[in-house]
Amino acid sequence: GAPVKAFARISDSDIYLRSQIYSPDIVVILDTGIMDTVDVTKGLKENGVIVMNTPRSPEEIDLPFKVATVDATGIAIENKILVGGIPVVNTPIIGALPKLMSNLTIESVREAIIERWGEKAGERNAVAAEEAYRRLRIK
Predict the structure, then answer these.
(1) Does 14 map to a domain?
(2) Domain of 105: which CATH number?
């Protein structure tokens, strides 16, 4: 499909601003194939981080930014988080973020996942998020 951009602001206080983020602190890449057609670093702050869904190590990624990698696809497959046989990588990627953010904990991510998806599906997704948190590699 076509490349998709999505934005999220995360804060301990209320957020009233509703617009595109032009200078992100973190860029998340769910599919590295996008990097052939989109400048994923555009606007990224000087001390920003790129989080990539890839089995590759951060040292293998040639970008002038801090890079963090996790095999979210593999984690989704291991935990049977699939829709129509396709791995859903969003949940593992969300689990990786607390390792990079001071205002987000893996415990709060776990609670939110279970609250949203219920015990059965929520637990499977929460386990995947925690696994991504543990496996995230940072350069």
Answers:
(1) no
(2) 3.40.920.10
Interval 85-125: pLDDT, tens: 999 999 999 999 999 998 899 999 999 999 999 998 999 99
**How many structural domains compose the chain?**
1
Dump pLDDT digits (tens) for 23-81.
Answer: 999 999 999 999 989 899 999 999 999 999 999 999 999 999 999 999 999 999 999 99
Sheet holding 49-53, edge to edge: 26-29, 49-53, 66-70, 137-138
Could you list the residue range(s) of the whole structural domain that residue 113 is in?
Answer: 26-138
Instruction: Output the pTM of the full model.
Output: 0.91
